């Protein structure tokens, strides 16, 4: 029987692990497929306090993991695939490798995965020109044109990053105003290699085996045109990885976990939420880490009350 199982190994999960381990709860962290979470796919993290010269995302998450292990957290490279939550009682989990786990408490820190437009061509051409991670795939697009879809901070960051490699970057955004923060928008808009297609949506991607271009519709003129490109980068936000808890804990319409105000408590007693799977507003490494800390403290208090 475990005291606490942490599902997910991003900044929320590993911060929860540090706190739970220091509280002698012997936490077990199930990493999921992407150990270290989404930050491992980022090159320079410029806004994590304590790193004035910026820090590589992979290195940062490796340090989180080392810190958690130093205090006794067990990091297990496996995914939780099924959950049976029993409010105030023993929860049951199953892993991809077939292990069955019983635990008094759970911290859900499963994060969120990239959203695509839902075009058939995105699936067909995934990893053949279609990507949701410029940091991972940008270097494959040297001296060729690419497009980035979206108007948020991710789109600006990816577009700016891609100018290191691509001959030209075209940002395609469905509105005529960016959602991105001013500093990141200005950085992209001042970059001579980045062009913007405003109020345009992608109707299709050209190419059977590799991306050759995109067909876009201008929503103001209702006309279509083609942009030649070799790379298609979706920067459309994220979908929370909370499906296995459907119907067992309260979530919003998009699947983000609802937390009680001023705590990390979910609607199921003994189950706590932290990080991007429970936060569609801030979604930062530092806020996720803070949420992981809260979840660990809440779990510790819950376990103390259970024992008395
Ligand atoms: P956002 O949700 O902020 O932006 C998603 C973008 O995709 C929006 O412009 C949205 O359009 C567009 N979009 C979504 N669905 C569709 C669709 N079906 N068709 C066309 N366009 C679509 O996600 P981000 O990943 O950019 O950012 C998430 C969070 O992470 C934010 O809080 C952001 O500030 C933060 N972040 C911070 C960074 C940093 O500080 N270094 C870097 C990256 C992200 P519309 O605007 O019209 O809704």
Share of residues in helices: 10-25%
Strand content: 25-35%
Number of domains: 2
Describe the sheet with the most strands: 7 strands, mixed
Give the topology string: H per helix, E per strand.
Answer: EHEEEHEEEEEHEHEHEHEEEEEEEH
Global geometry: elongated
Return the CATH topology of the largest domain: FAD/NAD(P)-binding domain
CATH homologous superfamily grouping of the largest domain: FAD/NAD(P)-binding domain
How many angstroms separate the termini? 18 Å
Number of strands: 19
Pick out the low-confidence regions: none
CATH architecture of the largest domain: 3-Layer(bba) Sandwich
Average pLDDT rating: 95
CATH hierarchy, class of the largest domain = Alpha Beta
Radius of gyration over alpha carbons? 21 Å
The kinds of small molecule bound in this structure are: NADPH dihydro-nicotinamide-adenine-dinucleotide phosphate
Total DSSP helices: 7
Q: Assign the structural class, choosing from mainly alpha, mainly beta, alpha/beta, alpha+beta, or little secondary structure.
A: alpha/beta
Detail the topology: elements first, then pairings.
Blueprint: E1 2-7, H1 11-22, E2 28-30, E3 44-45, E4 55-56, H2 57-70, E5 74-76, E6 80-84, E7 91-95, E8 100-108, E9 112-114, H3 120-124, E10 130-131, H4 134-137, E11 145-149, H5 153-162, E12 168-172, H6 182-189, E13 194-197, E14 200-206, E15 213-218, E16 223-228, E17 231-234, E18 238-240, E19 271-273, H7 285-307
Parallel strand pairs: 1-2, 1-8, 2-5, 8-19, 10-17, 11-12, 11-17, 12-13
Antiparallel strand pairs: 3-4, 6-7, 7-8, 9-18, 14-15, 15-16
Helix pairs in contact: 1-2, 1-7, 5-6
Bound molecules: NADPH dihydro-nicotinamide-adenine-dinucleotide phosphate.
């Amino acid at each position: 029987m475990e005291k606490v199982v942490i599902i997910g190994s991003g900044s929320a999960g590993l911060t929860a692990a540090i706190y739970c381990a220091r509280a002698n709860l012997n936490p077990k962290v199930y990493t999921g497929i992407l150990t270290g979470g989404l930050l491992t796919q980022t090159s320079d993290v410029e806004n994590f306090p304590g790193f004035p010269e910026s820090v590589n995302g992979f290195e940062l998450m490796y340090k989180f993991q080392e810190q958690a292990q130093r205090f006794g957290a067990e990091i297990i490279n496996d995914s939780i695939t099924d959950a049976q939550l029993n409010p105030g009682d023993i929860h049951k989990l199953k892993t991809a490798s077939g292990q069955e786990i019983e635990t008094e408490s759970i911290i859900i820190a499963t994060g969120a995965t990239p959203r695509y437009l839902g075009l058939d061509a995105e699936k067909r051409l995934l990893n053949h020109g279609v990507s949701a991670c410029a940091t991972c795939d940008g270097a494959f697009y040297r001296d060729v044109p690419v497009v980035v879809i979206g108007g948020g901070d991710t789109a600006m960051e990816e577009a700016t990053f891609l100018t290191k490699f691509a001959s030209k970057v075209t940002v395609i955004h469905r509105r005529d105003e960016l959602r991105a923060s001013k500093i990141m928008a200005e950085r992209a808009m001042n970059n001579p290699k980045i062009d913007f297609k405003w109020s345009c949506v992608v109707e299709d991607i050209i190419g059977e085996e590799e991306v050759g271009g995109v067909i876009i519709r201008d929503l103001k003129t209702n006309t279509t045109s083609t942009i030649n490109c070799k790379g298609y980068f979706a920067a459309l936000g994220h979908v929370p990885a909370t499906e296995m808890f459907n119907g067992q804990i309260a979530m919003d319409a998009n699947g983000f976990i609802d937390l009680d105000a001023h705590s990390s408590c979910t609607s199921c007693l003994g189950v706590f939420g932290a990080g991007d799977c429970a936060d569609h507003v801030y979604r930062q490494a530092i806020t996720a880490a803070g949420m992981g800390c809260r979840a660990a403290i809440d779990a510790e208090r819950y376990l103390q009350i259970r024992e008395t």
